[in-house]
Structure formats: C-alpha cells, structure tokens
Amino acid sequence: MRSTEGTGCADTTTALTLHINGERQERTVDNRTSLLDLLREDLRLTGAKKGCDHGQCGACTVLLDGRRVNSCLLLAVAADGTEVTTVEGLADGEALHPLQEAFLAHDGFQCGFCTPGQICSGVAAIAEAAEGWPSAVTPDGVPDGPVELSGGEVRERMSGNICRCGAYVNIIDAVREAAR
C-alpha cells in the first residue's frame, strides 16, 4: 500500500490477492478501480466487455466464487481473496466448456459483443437451477430439488444480459442444451 502518513489523506491504493481463472494474482490497485477495469486494463483479460458501465447490459458478467456479478459495478478491492472466473477461464485446456460448445452449435451469438457475459451468466444460471434456486417464474414456489430450465426459466434467469442483435432464441436453446 502506498503510504500517505502525515499528509492527512487516506490511503488511495490497496494490495489485493485474487485467484483469476485459477491463477493467483497479486496487484496494488487504486481503490476506485472496478473489477472490470482490473481484468481488462491490468490483466489484459478482454473477454468481459465494457458495455454500459452501469450494470444494465450484462456484457461484463463474470463469476465471483461461482456466482455471477456485473464486474463494472464491483470494486476490485471488494473481490480481494476471491476466485474470479472469466469466459477465458471456462474452457479446460483446449476443450471448451459445454455452454461454449452449445453456443457454437446453436449460433447463440451474432456480433459476439455480449457473448462472454451471456456465457458466464448462463453457467451461473445452470448452477443455480441445479441447486434448486427458484426464480420469479418457478412454479409452486421453492422446489424440493433442481429446477427444470424451461424456456421461461432461462429467459427469466438471463434477463440481466442484453443481446442487441436479438439472438435470444438461440441463447435460450444453448443454455437449455448445456443444462441437460
């Protein structure tokens, strides 16, 4: 940490340790740095996109300890000590993640700008449904087990991710296939 002793100012940087895509990363960052900016500008992981920079489009979605977050809204200092997975970290070597494969098989993208966020969000949506987390459209309240990912379930769970090209039908098909 940069010392500001005797200046009357609070520290403006913080030393962090994150595990990003399975690799330990130690960085000192300005306290105002978003996780998205740390990923893109410092670590050169450009899969997560800066779309709206207001948490409205989902293009910056990454997984934080397995749960999806809008990385443009999360300060990097809040992610200290966590496991961050970006779209670059989903594949197992040369083998793509099943949802990445399904996106290819179903043409779940057009321009591709939103695709990394869509895929990270889809991975989390599948995990949430498998763990029995209900959504606003899950019938009969809280289920006793995994939630079946109908088209309506996928639409609801992916509603925070916008595709300006309108590839939603194919995205829904890809998520449903990967969930099976």
Automatic annotation (TrEMBL):
<feature type="domain" description="2Fe-2S ferredoxin-type">
    <location>
        <begin position="14"/>
        <end position="90"/>
    </location>
</feature>
<dbReference type="InterPro" id="IPR052914">
    <property type="entry name" value="Aldehyde_Oxdr_Iron-Sulfur"/>
</dbReference>
<dbReference type="InterPro" id="IPR012675">
    <property type="entry name" value="Beta-grasp_dom_sf"/>
</dbReference>
<dbReference type="InterPro" id="IPR036010">
    <property type="entry name" value="2Fe-2S_ferredoxin-like_sf"/>
</dbReference>
<keyword id="KW-0560">Oxidoreductase</keyword>
<dbReference type="InterPro" id="IPR002888">
    <property type="entry name" value="2Fe-2S-bd"/>
</dbReference>
<keyword id="KW-0479">Metal-binding</keyword>
<dbReference type="InterPro" id="IPR006058">
    <property type="entry name" value="2Fe2S_fd_BS"/>
</dbReference>
<protein>
    <submittedName>
        <fullName>2Fe-2S iron-sulfur cluster-binding protein</fullName>
    </submittedName>
</protein>
<dbReference type="InterPro" id="IPR036884">
    <property type="entry name" value="2Fe-2S-bd_dom_sf"/>
</dbReference>
<keyword id="KW-0408">Iron</keyword>
<dbReference type="Pfam" id="PF01799">
    <property type="entry name" value="Fer2_2"/>
</dbReference>
<dbReference type="Pfam" id="PF00111">
    <property type="entry name" value="Fer2"/>
</dbReference>
<dbReference type="InterPro" id="IPR001041">
    <property type="entry name" value="2Fe-2S_ferredoxin-type"/>
</dbReference>
